[in-house]
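call fold(seq) -> tokens
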Amino acid sequence: MKIVIIHGQNHHGSTYHITEMLTDNLTTSEDQVSEFFLPTDGPKHCIGCYRCFEEGEACCPHKERVQKIVKVMDLSDIIIINSPTYCLSMSGQLKTLFDHLAYQWMSHRPKKEMFSKTGIVISTTAGAGAKKVTKDLSQQLFWLGVPKVYQLPVKVGASSWGGVSNELKEKIEVKIYGVSQSIKRRIGKVKPSLKHKITFELMRMMQRKNDWNFVDRGYWEDKGWLGHERPWK
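ret:
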């Protein structure tokens, strides 16, 4: 099994430790885990040049770092994305990465590989906002085509992992164990939901009328998605 972890921060705080806890529950010595820490491993801010939409992702001025992450995501069975709660939202550096992945949304050029993956999104907060962050992260993965996303928002009530009470850490461990068992049972069995299929069909209808972006339309034609083919078949 291959897992990619995209850390929405460089520091090893509560979000990092909970992610490590989950990874330890999911993996054995035979599994492969790849990690990216943002902003160190991520791209610079998107400049809104539209080249990824109009000319292709290879024309993005930040393509080297973006595609390095994309290639690992393509090959992974599980995508884990985490972010501390910053001002009731995800970290800015993580949003920057998602801005660069917009060309892969179902409304543009989604990857077939994404429609069979499992996503896990994690956020911690000292007070409020973690649920909003995991919901936002889950929405990003939905539009990339990921059919099943587990959300793990955790209110730790502390500014560091060392400040989290042992009682709460034990509760977190129990929750993570349950989630990890559910994930392992569903590996290789994940399929798009009705919501995914309906959204894809709406995007397909849009692409059939697309006379404004021939890069997107050509992509759908090449995949056979304007006909009878679907990315989950």
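The mean pLDDT is 96.
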